[in-house]
Amino acid sequence: MSTDPAALVVGVDFGTLSGRAVVVRVDDGAELGSAVTDFRHGVVDRRLPGSGRELPPDWALQVPADYLEVLRTAVPAALAAAGADPAQVVGIGTDFTACTMVPTTDDGTPLCELAEFADEPHAYVKLWRHHAAQPQADRINELAEKRREPWLPRYGGLISSEWEFAKGLQVLQEAPAVYAAMRHWVEAADWIVWQLTDRYVRNACTAGYKGILQDGVYPSPEFCRELDPGFEHFVGQKLEHPLGQLGGRAGGLSARAAQWTGLPEGIAVAVGNVDAHVTAPAAQAVEPGRLVAIMGTSTCHVMSGAALREVPGMCGVVDGGIVPGLWGYEAGQSGVGDIFGWFVEHGVPASYHDAARERGISTHELLTELAADQAVGQHGLVALDWHSGNRSVLVDHELSGVVVGQTLATRAEDSYRALLEATAFGTRTIIEAFTGAGVPVTELVIAGGLLKNRLLMQIYADVTNLPLSTIGSEQGPALGSAMHAAVAAGAHPDIRAAAAAMGSLGQVVYRPIPANVAAYDELYAEYRTLHDYFGRGANDVMHRLKARRRVAAGQRGMAEVDA
Amino acid sequence: MSTDPAALVVGVDFGTLSGRAVVVRVDDGAELGSAVTDFRHGVVDRRLPGSGRELPPDWALQVPADYLEVLRTAVPAALAAAGADPAQVVGIGTDFTACTMVPTTDDGTPLCELAEFADEPHAYVKLWRHHAAQPQADRINELAEKRREPWLPRYGGLISSEWEFAKGLQVLQEAPAVYAAMRHWVEAADWIVWQLTDRYVRNACTAGYKGILQDGVYPSPEFCRELDPGFEHFVGQKLEHPLGQLGGRAGGLSARAAQWTGLPEGIAVAVGNVDAHVTAPAAQAVEPGRLVAIMGTSTCHVMSGAALREVPGMCGVVDGGIVPGLWGYEAGQSGVGDIFGWFVEHGVPASYHDAARERGISTHELLTELAADQAVGQHGLVALDWHSGNRSVLVDHELSGVVVGQTLATRAEDSYRALLEATAFGTRTIIEAFTGAGVPVTELVIAGGLLKNRLLMQIYADVTNLPLSTIGSEQGPALGSAMHAAVAAGAHPDIRAAAAAMGSLGQVVYRPIPANVAAYDELYAEYRTLHDYFGRGANDVMHRLKARRRVAAGQRGMAEVDA
Q1: ipTM, interface predicted TM-score of the complex
Q2: Residues with Cβ < 8 Å from A301, sequence gap 6 or more?
């Protein structure tokens, strides 16, 4: 389609800790160069930058200026790495974590950049994994159920504390001055496009999945008023904005952004998108039944389906939410690589790190090697993967992790393997929810950094009893963003065509090993029993522990003030 | 009472990893010198010494020659440290872990010292924490309940896999040749006295608590035959032997043992005793209501009571089992310091060890310091302390550890504190069982190495809501053994008099802090809910995980042989 075989696009993937830019050839998807910029402030979950003001538990903020730094550094570096002539670049596309929300003024200035709000936590970006709006989410769910709001089943029956309404309501209730000053409550996915184009276009994907826009309407003012009288006009005054479709052209690259990036002014900038959702076409998963799991710090599952079904505990279903013309289903696991990383950092003795260093491998690799040497069940453990709560199918961020079965003979590799398995059981729970609701899953495609762990991949194949393939690109989201840029620039007619030309699947296919499948069936039964016991109300100990933790942290905080 | 104010006694305490000798003045209990010898082979739980033969899970053996080395090295070293004239020593007393069993020939030679059995695991000492005889214990309990054996309630309704019958039955069923060659199935507590005196005297304490001797009789041949036809004459042929009472004189020190120890030939050797039980008089706990918890790798609880009561899940009640004239009650926790040690060794990152080293303190001390800085419940965790199974009140060694509530914010000090608390909850569970059965507990006295941890002591006071004092001696069991030696030598008329003259309590008393008591009441309720869920049949996942672990380890073993 592309008239110029040398035409290039740039995809920029904004993750939890860094942004990655990749330069891709429009013709065949060849990735010519890439570069990563770490966010200067990372995840702000303990103290505000500057003042050092302490944050309560479950908060997770970011600093929007960190995102612009990615445009100024990673994009030019990727161009340089590709040895590319910027003049060949015809478009740029971006994807972002979601639901990550920026409170802004009328012109898009983040409120935290105003002097009056620099020390106000609610003026900062609320990262997807900010989980402190759970009381607001509880209220939304309770009320929606009572009122039988028609949109509730589209979200598996539960609205997440991570999403636009819960986070917005938290701002109103805890920081009314910030709420009053906030003209737009903007997905970071759209904020970054606003910075690139000087135009605010709201993307249809997050508006649907995170903003409760269904069949063209948001939750009603009556609903919002019943949540809180001050919230009545939330949609009209803070949220609503003209939409752009995925792969659409949000605008042309502004002069300012051209200067930041080194790209030509006026080239196509694609409508904002979400990291997980852009990855599906990058993995050529544009047809029903092929579930893409993007496995990184957390896992996002996306799949297209021909029909609208209500899947209990899914994150959401949105018409054209992934690919135009199909229903896009989304589910997720709040913690995956995060949990492995936490364990390696905080639960592994020095001898493992030393041994790994001596061999020139990572501690993850060493633990994987040791764990791979075990038969299924040999460690005697079963764990629940809820260290960051549960996004699907329980949709409860007050849940927490569990390990059952430790003995004095338990070693780090045992616990590590149990955590790998727990996340696989979590994925199987989601697959069973889809299949049970009439949205069959026939194949797993894995994208994201964790696909390099072969043991993990085999465990997923064995636990789910599904063939598993991996995406060909090591930078799936950035590639997906580049593909959307190509569509926005008119270099491909639509995302299906772009997927066919530019997407790729890896050569390795993991097939279930029957003996392991049988053994994991039994361990999965244990997981599900514990899942339902701790997750469905039989024993709400996790909720009580978290409540007590907040009380105790408060006491301790006061004691420190007193002291 | 002692006619010679300079008269000395030696107490030797055989623990799990080492033996400690202490030289004590008979008159006032002054501890003049002590020495420790580590067991050369420690706990043999992976491979047999010599052949390197691999042991199955849950095995724990020892090498009897290691015990003699303590007599040859620690006793002379203690005498030297005391600057004592051996001629002043009038008696020696010993205490041992229990139930730790030695299979011997007619003359007391351990079977593992015979060439034909050197590579046979069943010919070695089965340490108290050998937990591989659970199937045998299950069978004993099932049959005893069916036959309504009158002795069963004396053991809280359950016979432990750690004890003489279960371990003996395992030898019969798994190594009939060893069983046939075994003339005596001897408590290590008595075997060491046999080595000192050349006479085998069976002590009344372990015969009652571990050997099911009640009201003068053992389980019947009919019962044993129904367990296994080959087991019919177990009592008559392997177990039964004339008894000695606690504080009695087993015999005089043999010439051979005098040479080993440097002590005068012919001095009084006290009847064998158990580490926990000798500690009660050392802590002056010879009256009802004062519960002594000897807290080391595991915790043993001993208390005397005026009346015979049946306490569910206690280890046992034995007439005169601690102090003549009172019913001696015993309960226990299979893992305490063991669990803390396991966690520090296998679950704490290098940064903590480094920080501790820099400050010249232990990692335990550093973690305790960090944990002490938290309000109750601030870590958001609750754990079950069953890493070594549960000895009271569930009596089930197939149970295992649990941690609930981990998040990505969980740090090592959080988990450490949760484990400290879990063991305190375990002690409270035992106290409530006693009190509920009409054996009131009014005061806690702590002995053993863990009493040095002030945070742990305060947690125990807060969790149990009882005043808590600590023993004055740092080597309670060895002091208690020395007191029994003094009684055996006639230097004190009985153990009460010896306790009054030689025992001691520390100056520190920990009193419950009301706010903590209230908070821990709530956390304890969580513990009890999980305790009953995992421990009383609602979810037998731990049993299934252990069964699967054995199967998987077996597969792996075969795979290695195949490879």
Answers
A1: 0.84
A2: A276, A291, A292, A293, A294, A329, A330, A331, A332, A333, A392, A427, A430
Question: Coil, helix or strand for A103?
Answer: strand
Which residue in B406, B545, B551 is closest to A401 by CB distance? Answer: B406
What would the DSSP string read from start to end of A168-179? HHHHHHH-HHHH
State the burial class of residue A536 (Cβ atoms within 10 Å of its Cβ: 0-12, 13-18, 19+). exposed
What does the pLDDT average to over A240-254? 96
Say if residues B270 and B254 touch (Cβ distance below 8 Å). no
Chain A positions touching B342 (Cβ under 8 A) are: 408, 410
Query: Angle formed by the axes of helices B514-535 and B454-464, to 10°?
Result: 80
Which residue bears the tokens 């045992």?
Answer: A414
pLDDT reported for residue B325: 82
What residues does B244 pair with on adjacent strands?
Answer: B203
B432: exposed, middle or buried (Cβ count in 10 Å: 0-12, 13-18, 19+): middle
**What are the beta bridge partners of residue A202?**
A243
Contact B27, B5 (CB under 8 A): yes
Who's near A104: CB < 8 A, 6+ residues apart?
Answer: A110, A111, A182, A183, A184, A186, A191
Taking alpha carbons only, the member of B468, B470, B461, B469 closest to residue B512 is B461
Q: Read off the pTM.
A: 0.84
What are the chain A neighbours of B513 within 8 Å (beta carbons)?
none
Output the CA–CA distances (angstroms, integers) from residue A29 to A3, A9, A22, B301, in the order listed.
Answer: 15, 9, 11, 71
Among the partner residues B45, B377, B388, nearest to A552 by beta-carbon distance: B377
d(CA A187, CA A207): 9
Strand segments, DSSP code E, in B249-350 are 249-252, 268-270, 290-295, 299-305, 316-319, 327-333
Provide the 8-state DSSP code for A297.
S
Considering CB atoms only, which of A346, A353, A544 is closest to B412?
Answer: A346
In one-letter notation, the amino acid at residue B417 is R
Number of H helices, E strands in chain A: 19, 21
* DSSP 3-state of B545: helix
Q: Is A139 on the interface with B (CB under 8 A)?
A: no
DSSP secondary structure string for all residues of A132-146: TTHHHHHHHHHHHHH
Selected residues 147-166 of chain A with any CB under 8 Å from a CB in chain B = none
Pairing status of strand B468-471 against strand B443-447:
parallel
pLDDT band at A558 (very low <50, low <70, confident <90, very high): very low
Instruction: Say whether pLDDT at B505 is over 90.
Output: no
pLDDT tens for B2-26 read 458 789 999 999 999 999 999 999 9
Listed in sequence order, the residues at least 6 apart from A525 whose beta carbon sits closer than 8 Å to its beta carbon are none
- CA-only gyration radius of chain B, Å: 23
Average pLDDT rounded to a whole number, residues B91-99: 97
